[in-house]
Structure formats: structure tokens, C-alpha cells
Write a structure and sequence with these properties.
The complex is a heterotrimer of chains A (189), B (405) and C (146).
Chain A lengths: L4 E2 L2 H13 L3 H8 L6 E6 L5 H8 L13 E2 L8 E5 L4 H13 L5 E5 L1 H5 L13 H8 L4 E5 L6 H15 L6 E4 L2 E4 L4
Chain B lengths: L24 E6 L2 E7 L8 H5 L7 H5 L9 H14 L5 H30 L2 H22 L8 E2 L2 E2 L8 H24 L1 H7 L7 H6 L4 H5 L7 H4 L20 H24 L15 E10 L2 E10 L6 E5 L2 H4 L3 H5 L7 H8 L3 H5 L1 E4 L5 E3 L1 H19 L10
Parallel strand pairs in B: 1-8
Antiparallel strand pairs in B: 1-2, 3-4, 5-6, 6-7, 8-9
Chain C lengths: L2 H8 L8 E5 L3 E7 L3 H11 L3 E9 L4 E9 L4 E9 L6 E3 L9 H11 L2 E3 L27
Parallel strand pairs in C: 2-5, 6-7
Antiparallel strand pairs in C: 1-2, 3-4, 4-5
Classes of the chains: A alpha/beta (189), B alpha+beta (405), C alpha/beta (146).
């Protein structure tokens, strides 16, 4: 998990040095190019649909992620991040790799849910080729991967995960999110 | 059938700009009409039945709850009923009522989800936002009772794991009153809207005899005049004690299925209210020590139709065989009967009316006779919405008015 | 049809069955040898009008079992036809898909997972295993470990 980012409060802080170590000037510039408004593409690699529905819930009035600049797009070519759900079944694994290749870099791969983070309850099942990070690393060992556990993760957890990952990647930017009326600045710097 | 079209399964080269992924459903067309369908499953196949044989009887409900997220209360219930049949166990009365309450609440949020999705496919995004907004209180209620918005993990062999706390009952009733009012408003808006009538009536018709041949269940069947419902035909949980009716419509088109789902939502709300009022006192589980050898069949009416589980035991700790049949497994093939001869613009809607899992409908593409993709999912969505806009213009109709958005 | 009518009708095909097992009032298991399975299913589906539910394939070590489940919705009775495929080397059974199109997928699935060939099936192609899944490996057979 050297190049991945774990979405836990403390870890987000320690992830920073890893990102800086491998940064040359060019890499830093590329990371800054990750827009503040982040476009995400959703990929289902064999999920029960709970995570997928919670992702779609993000668009609905109660959570309304568009106010954070997070937008669900219809093609990986326009995406800054992939929201991946599911265990990564044998049939879906190649599709996921193909989608990853087509996504513009730099991009962040979010493993949404217990299945994507580590096959969850389906460990050992015969048709599982996952978890998702193994599948992605086969095509790109330096992929940036973030984990949002839960079964399914609540929409609030997904938003927090995305915001924290972005903050860890762009230390100079501050991302604000509201939690029960109080503004929380997710800046681990 | 006309002379056979050249059908190759997934033969689209890497250079085609629209092809990004292997598709679930490939529809072959002649002009604007669909002539054939090829379905490729496998993306979601995880091997759950085999995994079940490695788990103990009381661990399996957690696994099968994740077969499909929106039917996550019915799968463990059907399984647990099969095992209770083998063991000759009867759960306490209160457990039967709690099971009914959870399952009907699930039906309410699932049907609202469907209404939202159908709205999305035809370009009524207000309906989508609105229906999904009013799903949220139901999910919050389920979270208060069971601890999770989905994947409740609430049934076990012998009863339920969590009880409905008596203090929560007034709140549940208040939320149900609010949801009922909103659903009434939505139903009226749908039934009165001339654009929806023109857009949905006569579309994606599944004839009754085709429905029987394809062995469909749930609203897909009830929308074609096949008035079957496991809750009525082979009552389980507390359904035999409640006063409710089976909703069915004869026309078989998308409009009929929408009406069935909307009216069923009211029946579900009625049932939850009755169950809460009649909730008997007592424990919610009995202790089950052993499962003897034998076989059992359990079925439950999930929001999409009949969920069927067959379990065989040899007296040990684990099932020897566990067969799981989700309702979409028999409903989705019927798409063949309702889609052939239809317009491309109606394809996403017809599939949605069968109400498969959401991710199934994302994976649909139209190919020409040389298997080159000519319309991907985004395209099909656009065509569907354009048709709605055309109809709207022809009728000179204003947009749907939904208050309280 | 009502349960007593169903019971009466079932006794009509008694000569083609090797057993009738009634469990719990509304679960009936009919056992038969494989050569009779098609006509029994035809009797249940076309003459009695029972609804096809699904089929289950089981590896019972010395032979395979195929169960076809039907439902009599009017009385809530599930009637299961249980048959045996005794040739383990090349297991074959008559398909019921020509009679019930709704059985197409499940027979393809049993073919993928257990290796049973369904004679006269209109489209016995791979359904649920991945394109690159090795031929000849049948995951639901007992010898394949998870």
C-alpha cells in the first residue's frame, strides 16, 4: 500500500510526505491540475448495488455533492477520479483496467465499500479476481488509490473520503465541508 | 424471424470511439426497431452459492443479504424460512411482525427508487430528485431500527436479531404519514400527466402469455395481469394477519407497471401501520441449536418479485447446497419478449420497467449487423429523453408540478 | 388450483414417478428417473398450469441431481421434480427450455457450473462464467474447492 492513501484522520497527514517524496516540479504541477471541481466516473466491478445506490444518492437533494464541485460524468475520459464499487469479478477485472487506462491522468481511484477495499464478505469466492487495488496495480503500480470502507459506506463517509483525499493531494488548497452546522476544514497540513 | 443477422458477441475493436467496455445487453437493430437481444451475464457473478457451503447456517444471512442491495431484506428472509422449514422451527409472533415491518419498509424505498430512475430515463429529473429525497426518511427509519440503511442483517434462524423499540413507533407513524402524503401527490401527478400517458402507455408491452412462458414474478407479472404475490399465495411472516390487497393491472406496458408500484407503496404503508398497531409482546427469537438433515424451500416477495431459496442440510453445521434465485433472474429474460419490435428510444425504459438492479441498466448498447456499437448507454438515454420532449411539444403540455421539492 | 385438486391430479402421473414426498403440507417432492422428467414437467406446466420457479443442480458425489421447482400459486404449494443424472463422465438430461423459455438461463447456468449437457436446448452457450474461465472446470462440483 506504498502509494495508496488511507482515509483515516492521522493517515491523511502521513500520506503527505509520500506524495511529496515522489514529486518533482512536474509532478507537483500535474497534481495541481486536479481541478478543485472534481469529476468522477462510477465503475461497478461486481457489486450488490448498495454502494452504487449510495453513490447515486450523493446527487440527490439531501447530500447534493454538486455544491462541493463533485460531478458524476458519463465517460472516464472526462473524469478526475474513479468511484469503483464491487469485488472485481473475473469478468469485470479487464473492463476495470480498460476504464482506468482511458481515464485522464492524474486520477484518483476511490475504492468505495468493503468489497472494493478488500473483497469484503466475498473473500475466497471462485469468481473474484479482486480486490480492486490489485487489479489497478497490474496496469499501473503507481496508481493513486484511496479507500472508503463500509458496507455500504454512508454518503457522508463517501463525501468525507473524497474531500480528505483531495486535501492530501493538494496541500495548498483548503476544502471545507459542513458537519451538523459547523464548518470543518479538511486540511491535514 | 427474418433471415439470421450476423451476430457476434462482443466484436468491437479498440479503435471504435464509443466502445469502452464489454456490454451486458447487446441489441441488434433494423432501422429504428430492435430485432434481437444478446445478454451476457458474468460481471456480477461472485460465486455466492458455493461460498454458502463454507459458512455455518447462522452466518449465511449476512452473505445473502448482499446478493442484491435493494432486496437485502428478502434474501435472508427466504433463506431463513427454508432453514426453519427443515428444522421445524416457528419463530415467535413478534418476530414475524418485525420481519413484516422491515420488508415492507424496504418495499417502500425500493419502489420510490424505481419511480425516480424511471423519471431519470425519460428526462423527468425533478421526479428523480423528488422520489429519492423522500426515500431518505425510510432509510433513516431502517437505520434507527436495524443499525444500517441497507443490509439490515436483521433476520436469523428462529426470529430476528433486533427488535423494533416501542418508543420508536410514534416516530415511524409520523414519517409514514408524511411519506404517504408525498406519494399521493406523486401518484396523482403521474396519473394526470398527459405527457407521461403518451410516453409510457403502449410501451414495452409484456403480454400475459409471454409472462407465463418466461415465468415472471412481482410487479413485472402483476403489470401484465398475472395476479401472483407470495405474500398472498403462500403467506409468511405476518401477512396472513393483515388487511391488504394484491395490486395488478392488465395492460402489460410500462405505465401499468408504474401504477402497480405506486399503488403497492400505499399498501405497504398501510401494512406497516397495521403491523405496528398489532405488534404482539414477547421475544423476537427462539434458540435453535441444530439443523437436522432435510431440504426446505423458502420464498419471499421482494420488491422485484419472488425470491426463492432452496436449502439442503445433512445434519451438519453448514448447508450442503443452497440455491438462490433472485426475481430479476426470471424477469430480465422477459425483456426479450417486451423489447423485440420496439423503438430504440424505448429500450432503456422497457428494461427499467422490469426493474433489474441499477447497474444492469448501465450496461446496455445497441449494435448493428456487424456488431459495431452505434448507440451506447448515454446515447440511448438521450434518445429516450428526446422522445419525451417531442411528445411534450406535440401535446403542448406544461411540465409536471411537484410541490414541496 | 386448490390443494386437494392438485393432489388428485398428481396421482395421475404416479406410474412415472419413483416417489412422492409431502413435507409440511405445502411442499411436495416428486422423484423420477431422467427419461420421464420432460413429460412430468410438461404435465405440471402445460396441463396443471403451475408456474416455473427455478431449477437447482446438485453434485451428490455418485451422481447429479437436477431439481425443477414449480409453484401452484393458488394454494401456495411448491412442487419440486427431482431427477438423477447417473452418468458422471458425460452427464446429459433433456432440456425443458423448448417447453418453458424461462428455463433457458438456469439450464445454461447448470451447464457452466456443473457440466451437465441439456439435450435440445436452443442456446447452450456460456452464461455466467468469465470469458477466460478454463474449460472443463465446473465450480459447483464437489472436487473444486473454493
Amino acid at each position: 500500500m506504498d502509494n495508496g492513501l488511507l482515509i483515516i484522520e492521522e493517515e491523511a497527514r502521513t500520506a503527505l510526505p509520500i506524495v511529496n517524496h515522489q514529486s518533482s516540479i512536474i509532478n507537483r504541477l500535474r497534481l495541481w491540475s486536479l481541478k478543485k471541481s472534481i469529476w468522477v466516473f462510477h465503475v461497478n466491478t461486481g457489486a450488490c448495488n448498495n454502494c452504487d445506490i449510495e453513490i447515486v444518492n450523493l446527487l440527490t437533494p439531501k447530500f447534493d455533492v454538486e455544491r462541493f464541485g463533485i460531478k458524476l460524468v458519463g465517460s472516464p475520459r472526462h473524469a478526475d477520479a474513479l468511484l469503483v464499487t464491487g469485488v472485481g469479478t473475473r469478468q469485470a477485472a479487464k473492463r476495470l483496467q480498460e476504464v482506468y487506462r482511458q481515464t485522464a491522468k492524474p486520477c484518483v481511484v476511490f475504492c468505495m465499500g468493503a468489497c472494493a477495499c478488500g473483497t469484503g464478505i466475498f473473500e475466497g469466492a471462485y469468481h473474484v479476481a479482486g480486490p480492486v487495488d490489485n487489479i489497478i496495480r497490474q496496469v499501473d503500480p503507481n496508481a493513486i488509490i484511496a479507500y472508503v470502507p463500509g458496507c455500504p459506506p454512508k454518503p457522508q463517509a463517501m463525501i468525507m473520503g473524497v474531500v480528505k483525499a483531495l486535501s492530501a493531494l493538494q496541500p495548498k488548497e483548503k476544502y471545507a465541508t459542513e458537519r451538523i452546522g459547523q464548518t470543518v476544514v479538511a486540511n491535514p497540513g | 424471424m427474418k433471415e439470421p443477422l450476423r451476430k457476434s458477441v462482443l466484436a468491437v475493436g479498440p479503435f471504435h470511439p464509443l466502445q469502452e467496455e464489454m456490454e451486458f445487453f447487446q441489441l441488434t437493430v433494423d432501422g429504428e426497431k430492435v430485432t434481437d437481444i444478446n445478454v451476457r451475464l458474468s460481471y456480477n457473478h461472485r460465486g455466492i452459492e458455493k461460498l454458502s457451503e463454507t459458512l455455518q447456517f447462522d452466518q449465511v444471512p449476512f452473505l445473502v443479504s448482499r446478493v442484491c442491495g435493494i432486496c437485502s431484506a428478502s434474501h435472508p428472509l427466504a433463506y431463513v424460512q427454508a432453514v426453519e422449514e427443515i428444522a421445524g422451527v416457528k419463530p415467535p409472533e413478534r418476530a414475524l411482525y418485525v420481519r413484516t415491518i422491515i420488508n415492507e419498509l424496504e418495499r417502500v424505498h425500493s419502489h420510490l427508487l424505481w419511480v425516480g430512475l424511471a423519471g431519470h430515463f425519460i428526462g423527468y429529473d425533478t421526479v428523480f430528485m423528488w422520489a429519492w429525497k423522500y426515500r431518505e426518511p425510510v432509510l433513516d427509519l431502517l437505520e434507527e431500527i436495524t443499525g444500517n440503511r441497507n443490509n439490515y442483517g436483521n433476520v436469523k434462524v428462529g426470529g430476528c436479531r433486533e427488535d423494533v423499540p416501542d418508543e420508536l413507533i410514534p416516530k415511524i407513524n409520523r414519517e409514514l404519514d408524511m411519506i404517504e402524503k408525498k406519494t399521493e401527490m406523486l401518484t396523482k401527478a403521474v396519473l394526470d400527466d398527459p405527457v407521461l400517458h403518451a410516453r409510457l402507455k403502449g410501451v414495452g408491452i409484456l403480454k400475459k402469455e409471454d409472462g407465463i412462458k418466461y415465468a415472471v414474478t412481482g410487479p413485472t407479472a402483476r403489470g401484465s395481469g398475472i395476479a401472483i404475490d407470495v405474500r398472498h399465495d403462500d403467506p409468511y411472516a405476518a401477512y396472513a394477519d393483515l388487511d391488504w390487497k394484491v395490486i395488478s393491472q392488465p395492460e402489460g406496458d410500462v405505465f401499468a407497471k408504474a401504477v402497480v408500484r405506486l399503488l403497492e407503496t400505499f399498501e405497504s404503508i398501510k401494512m406497516v401501520r397495521q403491523a405496528l398497531a398489532k405488534l404482539p409482546k414477547g421475544p423476537v427469537a427462539v434458540d435453535v441449536k441444530e439443523i437436522p438433515s432435510g431440504e426446505g424451500c423458502g420464498h419471499a416477495e421482494a420488491p422485484r418479485g419472488e425470491t426463492f431459496h432452496y436449502v439442503r442440510s445433512d445434519g451438519g453445521n453448514r448447508p450442503v447446497r443452497h440455491k438462490i434465485r433472485a426475481p430479476s433472474y426470471v424477469n430480465v429474460p422477459s425483456f426479450k419478449a417486451s423489447c423485440i419490435g420496439a423503438d430504440i428510444a424505448d429500450v432503456t425504459l422497457t428494461l427499467a420497467a422490469v426493474d433489474p438492479c441499477y447497474s444492469c441498466t448501465e450496461r446496455i448498447a445497441v449494435v448493428d449487423a456487424h456488431s459495431a456499437v452505434i448507440h451506447d448507454y448515454e446515447e440511448l438515454l438521450r434518445l429516450s429523453r428526446e422522445k419525451t420532449a417531442r411528445i411534450k411539444k406535440e401535446l403542448g403540455a406544461p411540465g409536471m408540478k411537484l410541490e414541496g421539492c | 388450483m386448490q390443494q386437494n385438486e392438485l393432489d388428485r391430479q398428481l396421482s395421475q402421473i404416479r406410474d412415472r414417478l419413483t416417489g412422492i414426498d409431502r413435507k409440511a403440507g405445502n411442499r411436495v417432492f416428486l422423484t423420477c428417473e431422467s427419461e420421464h422428467v420432460y413429460e412430468i414437467c410438461r404435465f405440471l406446466f402445460s396441463e396443471l398450469g403451475l408456474r416455473f420457479v427455478i431449477s437447482t443442480g446438485i453434485d451428490a458425489t455418485d451422481y447429479f441431481e437436477v431439481l425443477h421447482h414449480f409453484s401452484n400459486d393458488e394454494s401456495g404449494c411448491i412442487v419440486t421434480v427431482k431427477t438423477f443424472v447417473r452418468n458422471r463422465e458425460s452427464p446429459e438430461l433433456d432440456s425443458i427450455t423448448p417447453l418453458i423459455p424461462g428455463a433457458e438461463w438456469i439450464e445454461r447456468e447448470m451447464h457452466d457450473l456443473l457440466g451437465i449437457t441439456f439435450r435440445h436446448h436452443p442456446n447452450l452457450q456460456r452464461l455466467i462464467l468469465a470469458d477466460d474461465w478454463p474449460e472443463g472446470v465446473y465450480p459447483m462440483r464437489k472436487e473444486v474447492q473454493t
